[in-house]
């Protein structure tokens, strides 16, 4: 079942958690998809082929229950919410290559083939269990889930006693392998402090098997078990498989007719499985590697988990529907522009850590970092050549000095600095590096005072050099901000009247791309004044 060339790393393959379709998209979903989008666009800008897979988790009890309440079918309910996710990602510029919707027949075929294989091999068995069940989390609970008072906390919602016959996956058979794998592969989980949490959790936990079915009598909305039609697949066993089913796993065997599925060999293993901290243990860091191992994937074919933190409200409280503090990404993109929101979400959190979402801080970032430090700088870089040089740049002005050199060297060092930050997915640190260069440029304008140089004929070559350096710096800036702010980057380039040739990537980036005699375009505010809210 494993292709020979499974270890291929031709393509940078990035996936995200697939979002539950029991609700509309909120800021947490948007953050994760945008972070993946930024990493994908950044990798493309490095000249690497990229495949970005995201999607929606459409099965499960909550979808079934919500649909019943509304007296529509579960599929209708899932489709309706799926449309909201599709629309939000379209609006926010999340440019994915593959869409994983778990009710797709291609996915179902792969899930069923895997279940059948594991069953045939004796890795799945039937058993009866009596215990406490969390309706909200759709799982049986053990004593470990009890809090200090010996009770199941409110995070588990309604907890009831149940006896049920189900199918179990022999997770326990693989726990020793997992412990060894994790110990030998510290890169499996990023950031490393989350990897340590996993090691601790594995040390403390007893190896128990995983219940992977639900009887149809209480849950119909799932993928049917191929060897017993009275049962459907437990939602995690279904959802996790999206990472391989939509990457083309078993395409030839079970989906020969399906078009649009990529070649698994070129994608797997995923370079990045981007997920939130809440779904690392046990789903992604225990069940998932064990499932892959049980199917027969070798250690080298395990994906990498990149675990991000949570956005909380401005007081640090968890965002939740019941608290009424959920943040709608589209309302913010309307007010601050898509790129205003993208910038804030990327600049104001360190990947792996939590942050508090605040409208005051997004306003501040918009007016300081974006409108003033970037927008105003671009405007000056276009208006001064318009005023003093009819918009025409002179490339090799017979003038150079330490100030010019400082600008040049800062931008020449920028790709390396950005790469240093992006290697560990720290988009905020990459933006800081770019904004350091913008601060230098703003200082450069004040120090060189082109409006004074323009009055003195003997400073003509110096003025040309200053104007050229500013415009060239703006072209470089447009390149570097593109992964985070693709629209702004484009608008900058239009105003600069410059286009990167097709297939342009970081290796082509060099100082002096604007040709001698280049005519700049018209300046327009990149970030207009905000309407009072
Ligand atoms: N459907 C499962 C994932 C299955 S992956 C095989 C799920 N869905 S979810 O809709 O609840 O969450 C989707 C992603 O959004 C998760 O990675 C989760 O961590 C992330 N976030 C949900 N709320 C968040 C914040 N408040 N902040 C940041 N990310 C958050 O879990």
Radius of gyration: 27 Å
| Total helical elements | 19
Classify the secondary structure makeup into a structural class.
Answer: alpha/beta
Shape: elongated
Largest sheet: 7 strands, parallel
Overall structural domain count: 2
The named CATH superfamily of the largest domain? HUPs
Mean pLDDT across every amino acid position:
95
Query: Can you tell me the CATH architecture of the largest domain?
Result: 3-Layer(aba) Sandwich
Strand fraction = 5-15%
Bound molecules: 5'-O-[(L-methionyl)-sulphamoyl]adenosine
The CATH topology name of the largest domain reads Rossmann fold
Which residues sit in consecutive blocks of at least 5 with pLDDT less than 50? Answer: 1-8
Helix proportion? 40-55%
Distance between the termini: 57 Å
Number of β-strand runs: 16
Please report the first level of CATH classification, the CATH class of the largest domain: Alpha Beta
